[in-house]
Amino acid sequence: MDNDASGFSRPDVALPDASRWLQAVRVLAPKVLYGLRLWIAVCLALYVAFWLELDNAYWAGTSAAIVCQPSVGASLRRGAARMIGTVVGAIAIVAITACFAQDRVAFLLSIAIWGSACAFAASVLRNSASYGAALAGFTAVIVAGDELGMTGGPSGDAFMLAVTRASEIGIGIVSATVVLASMDLGNARRRLVSELAALAAEISHRFGALLVQTDLTQADTRPARHALATRIVALSSLVDEALGEVSDLPYRVGTLRAATEGLFVALSGWRTAANCLEELQEEEKRQSATILQMYPAHLRWPLAKSLWSGHPDTLIDVCRGAGRSLVALPVDTPSLRLLADGIAQALRGLSQTAGALTALADPAHAVSYRRRLHWYRPDLLPPFIAAVRVLATLVAIELIWIATAWPNGAEAISFAAIGLILFSPREAQAYSEARAFTLGLALAVVLAATVRFAVLPGMETFVGLSIVIGCVLVPVGVLSLQAWQTSVFKSLAIFFCILLAPANIMTFDTVQYYNEGLAVVAGMGSAAIGFLLVPPLSPAARVSRILDATLRDFRRLAAGRRRDGLQEWERRAYRRLADMPSTVGAGQLARFVAMLSMGSTIIRLRRLARRFKMEAEIDTAFAAIAAGKSGTAISYLSELERELRKNSNGEVEVTTSLRACAGMRAALRTLTRYGGYLDERGNWSSWPP
């Protein structure tokens, strides 16, 4: 420490170093805590398995390592999914063995078919449900590997092996759950509420800034909406964690859906208002001042997040009241009507999110959202490709095993199934993940060999074994949370225990160990090769197929072949938006949002047309859209708008007609900008159902 001329020490030299050390400790502490939780969970699972004298106690430790996640909610959801998937996989392999006990070829083929079916289901489902389907697939293959002989043939021990393996895995799940519940209370609810509040605050503030700075264009605001939509889609993983951690949230799924849908509705209203502001005439711009001032002033505050996170209940009535005033506000032109309704729509979405935030922040708050089931058919080509990849790869490895009589071929099949089924839902990242896990397995083979043959022979107690395992798992757990080579260290943490293979009576056969190590690395490497030879759809192809499916539904809606309600149409579109790859381009996203908005406009206009006895005329215009004739539809809608404004009488009828004209004007704008895209696929009647 330096001294000044008076002899006193200068603290300003040491304080920055202390501050850096404190910051480093704050960053490192959660990672070290995770490493400690991982170590304790694995050791507890091994201890229980040893005490019960199970044959392969290391499966309990491996299951604990898989279930133990940095987030408590993710761990609990994954643990429940793993338990269900394990039981289903065990039942499946018992049934397969019973059906093909004397037929080796049918038995091996059935295993491959079951794995491919589970890969298909894992690619269709999402989050924990996807993980449970994957577990059902490779659990069956793992149990089958235990009962297969030198060249592949079922034995009569399938039932006991399935029970034993399910018991070992269950011990690992319970052990990890106990450790997590005792060492971490979790903060998923707080993080979910915080992120929802941050998104709502940013939308309300940025939208308010647009209404103040009316010279902003779509080009100025579209990137912000794109980024916000991406963040809203990313909420699904955080929602899944919260559902696993908080006991009351599974009964509030409707509340969670309402929160995210409200944000999407607000973005849609933002887009409508931005389009209107861009095209207002000079006189309309002067008249729009009254509309713009009705947007609540405190929603424009840069510090509005404190309101959204601390007192969302105070915003519910504010947003609803302003929205009702805007809907009832008399205006003179369709453009002003559309502007007022767009702002009201954004406020309706923000009010919905505020209500959901209030219910999430206060468990005692009454839930007013009903849980509804909505049919959604995902794109089945990516799951089909995943199923074909698993089937082809497993059959190829089985043939190689039979032809070469490889003693450890069963382990290779098991790890190939793990890699293929587990990473299939990752699609574009699947190959890189499988390759990283292969590298992590190779490192685990070397590290486990060092510990097994150089350290364990001198250990005689479980305490000594636990200390040795902790010296590996704690630093590896910390490294698995770093930004560099995360998947490699995650693989090392998961598979170290299974390669170390601790048992009540240890064996130290180096030849057998290296054969097993080669088999597991070759199996995971085969999974990586499978992803390379049968690649998933590229992100560009995924986006193209989602756009095509949305366009097909849009054409059917326009033609009257679908009679969706407004909420049903928008929820289906939001689900498709959630399936969009993160690399979707701004232009592609704009086309998707245009179809979403146009479909909503069609539904609203059909309702309004009944009041003016114009169902036939409006259906004629929409039929032209469905037939890929946007130019004809533009002519029809323009004529209908002129007739409607000309023949409207009375204040109520004028307001309703202005709203209908505003919808037609929005449809005309969309057709003018995106008519070429909507027409390029030809007549809807030639499309497959």
TrEMBL record:
| Bilayer topology term | Multi-pass membrane protein
List all membrane-crossing ranges: 32-52, 83-101, 107-125, 158-181, 380-402, 408-424, 436-455, 461-481, 488-506, 518-537
What GO molecular-function term can you cite, just one? Answer: transmembrane transporter activity
Question: Quick check: keyword Hydrolase in the entry?
Answer: no
| InterPro entries for the chain | PHBA_efflux_AaeB/fusaric-R (IPR006726)
Q: Does the keyword Transmembrane apply?
A: yes
GO cellular component, alphabetical, reads: plasma membrane
Keywords on record: Cell membrane, Membrane, Transmembrane, Transmembrane helix, Transport
Q: Which residues form a coiled coil?
A: none
Give the UniProt subcellular location, in the record's own words: Cell membrane
Secretion signal span:
none
This protein is called: Fusaric acid resistance protein
Species name: Reyranella soli
Provide the organism lineage as a comma list. Bacteria, Pseudomonadati, Pseudomonadota, Alphaproteobacteria, Hyphomicrobiales
